[in-house]
Amino acid sequence: METQTDGSKGRGLELKIPPPLVALLVAGAMWELARFTFQIESSGSLRHAVAGVLFLTGILFTVSAMLTFRRSKTTVNPLKPETATALVSGGPFRVSRNPMYLGLLLVLVGWSVSLGAPWSLAGPVAFVFYIQRFQIIPEERVMALKFGVAYAQYCAGVRRWL
Question: What residue segments make up the domains of the chain, in order of their start?
Answer without folding.
Answer: 19-33+42-157
